[in-house]
């Protein structure tokens, strides 16, 4: 089935089998392999992407359901070679080791902080209960998110929702 | 379409249960009918007849609706226990109720609240009380040509006391057991109209009638609470499973009821 959607700012048309998951379509049809597939049944959060402004698990959506949607994947966070404020904070705080969970952590936290730039540490911790990380113990991830809040607060002030 | 498919089709709501089930090859429906484009099934309306939530309304939309914190507080309170941020962004109330997982929160909440479920099928529309909707684990009274379209909650008096308590191994996991309760306090300070919904411990969500009877007409003191908790424990017909023994679950039900009654009483002080 042919679908048209917007991914990271580009309008894309792609032919997908009706039962192909969105994460498989991103990786196999569009070579957007930044989105990682962990458990394939909605538990680990690695495949999180942002669909129409909301963080969702791309393994729990069929690609055809994304027809007409506006999608941001981890590839869409940086501006060229410049890391986004959240990505830069991850780097500063060593918020990743093996990196498998990182795309899902970044997209989840980007969606959260875009909507809630003043999110508390408790809120941040609660939201990333949906993302498993086996390396870091979460502490540097939470620290990075807290550190990045200021940039989201500034962009909220300059361009209110 | 459901009728034409002759039992071969499955309705796809938010997909947060059906897609994992398909990923595990536990289901392979020949035809999937995606309901996400049906706007009529989405939305929340509140008036003096109560609250109506369309079946395709997402947890996130329910969570964000501040009116529900007073119009259907048990619904709002249950949401934070339902799965995780990303799942709540797509999962729907109708999908969860139709799936009828006994460990899910919302089936217990609708039973506790005397909600009615609106169902549309080839024979037209019917409204089913929540306690008649769930027939067993993953089994409802929906027939093959029917779809759940909305949930209707009766009006919620402002002075009603309520609490939602559950215990899960990890945040967002299915609970070992949960309690959704409300009651009113009569002019003489005695408990009236106690409703206790039990989640997770039994094969279908149910009310704990014996414990309710032990509360009605009593003053809510330590003795009443302890007696109700004891009765709830023995009334909860829990079974052993891979997660916990029946004895553990029964004890947990009593503890959760005690916590819930105390939490509801704290709300009385805040009124």
Structure overview:
With 161 residues, chain A is α+β, with helices and mostly antiparallel strands. Chain A has two domains: 2-76, Ubiquitin-like (UB roll), CATH 3.10.20; 85-158, [2Fe-2S]-binding domain (DNA polymerase, domain 1), CATH 1.10.150. Chain A is 35% helix and 14% strand. Chain A has helices at residues 22-29, 85-92, 102-115, 121-127, 139-158; strands at 2-7, 10-15, 48-51, 54-57, 70-72. Chain A has a five-stranded mixed sheet with strand order 2-1-5-3-4, covered by helices on one side. The model of chain A has no long low-confidence stretch (mean pLDDT 96). In chain B, strand 7 and strand 8 form a beta hairpin. The radius of gyration of chain B is 19 Å and the shape is globular. Chain B is α+β, with helices and mostly antiparallel strands. Chain B folds into two domains: 37-153, Uridine Diphospho-n-acetylenolpyruvylglucosamine Reductase, domain 3 (2-Layer Sandwich); 161-270, 2-Layer Sandwich (Enolase-like, domain 1). Chain B has helices at residues 2-5, 18-23, 59-64, 68-71, 73-79, 85-88, 93-99, 105-112, 130-133, 209-215, 222-235, 246-270; strands at residues 9-12, 31-34, 44-47, 50-54, 116-121, 124-129, 134-136, 139-140, 147-153, 161-168, 175-185, 191-199, 206-207. Chain B has a five-stranded antiparallel sheet. Chain B has a four-stranded antiparallel sheet with strand order 10-11-12-13, sandwiched between helices. Chain A binds chain B through residues 18-19, 21, 40-42, 45, 48, 54-57, 59-62, 64-65, 108, 112, 126-127, 129-130, and chain B through 15-16, 19-20, 22-24, 32, 34, 36, 60, 83-87, 89-90, 170-172.
